[in-house]
Every structure is written in C-alpha cells, then in structure tokens.
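re: that chain from earlier
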Amino acid sequence: MKTLPRLLALLLALAVTLRAAETAGVYELRTYTTEPGRLDALLARFRDHTTKLFEKHGITNLAYWVPADAKDGAGNKLVYLLGYPNRDAATAAWKAFNADPEWQTVRKASEAPAAGGKIVTKVESVFVAATSFSPAFKVSAEKTPRIFELRTYTTPDEARLAALDARFGGGETELFVNAGMTRVVFTHPLDADKGAGHTLIYMLAHANRDTATASWQKFRTDPAWVKMKADSEKAAGGSLTSKTESMFLVPVDFSPTQ
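^ sequence. v structure.
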C-alpha cells in the first residue's frame, strides 16, 4: 500500500506542473554544453537534485532534451525549457536557487576532482514569450516515443517578422498539422541581444525522424503552402527569412514532457 501515497504524490506534482505550464507568462530556453564525457554527470545532477530544487524555488520544469545529431552537440549538450509567471519572478527564483545551500553543496560535490571535475563549460539562455498564434505549452507524458524539432527563423527586420507571424497565424501552422506534425509552442525572444524583433523560435513534435521527413515533404509540396509562401513573399518583396535553423531533440528520462 506504500505505493499508493507515492503515486498520488506523483499525480499531484504532475497536476501542479500542468497548471503552472498553462499559466506561464514567460519561458526560458536554456542550453548547457559540457566538458567531454560529462553529460551523464550533468543529467544525473538534474535528475537527482536540480529539477527538485527548481520546483522548490518556483521554477516550472517543462521539458528536457538532448540533441539527436552530432552536428548539434549530441553527447555533450542539454537543452531544456522552464516556465515562470513573468521576468521578475524568474530573476527572483534564480537568485534564490543559486543562494540555496543545498544547491551549493550538490554542485560542489558533483564537480569535485574525485567526481570528475568541472561539468558545464557553456550556458546559453533565451527568454521567450508565446506568440498570439501559439498554443500554450502543455506538459505531455506521452507513452509513445516522440522526437522534437526546435526551429529558429531569423528575419531581416521587424517588418519581415510581422509578415512571417501573419503567415504562421494565417494558416501555416494548420498546414503543419495537416502534414502530420504536432504543434508544441511558437515564441519570440524578449531581449534585443537574443533576437527580439527579428526571430521566431518554435517547437514541433514528430513520431520519429522518418515521419518528420515525410511530413516536411508533404508540407512543402502542399499547393496551399506553395501559394501562401509565394503570396507572402510577393507582398514583402522577397523572402521573409534570412536564416533557418533546425535541431532535432530527444526527451531525457526525467523530462516532464515526453
């Protein structure tokens, strides 16, 4: 019978996470690059300590992934998404987390020479907010394995970003669904030095890499998409994007979103 209270506790924690995710006003996309051979140590620290300490200080754990491909850092990178009510709450939460004696003890022990030394060599953080056409990020403990695709579109200027948003909000994301893709979240960076005003960062989910390839082929040959793209570029006087990046991500075992 001991398993029943434990199960109820897990269900309650998931419910709290779901509610927090649905009310998150600000997301933070973080990427950690590790020393060679130290990714497992980083994952163990998150699994056993960091995610719980985040929750303690009001940081909502939404999803944790590792890149699927070597070109994107497979084997030495962790990419994850957090949620907060607002930027002030994020600042306060991180201040409390970093000052927490338990975190300081955990970090020191995990990076001791006997444990293998330094773990993280680079930390990247981008605060983003959902676009008007984005669904709210929903934590989903899918039982069927999925692969996620993080896409970043850079536009030449704010006018082209507005045109891109209009195209996405005017039917492009529905064509993603028609082609077999799952919409996860669509966002804009909040800070100028991270691309505010000319960047769209969004996440899709696919059953696997093969279905992703098939879905993109179906999407790109869809007459509705071909016309939509042509019309938007004609109105803007050229391509809406100057750079397109795509990274496939695999959820780690402790990720709330699978």
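The longest helix spans residues 3-23.
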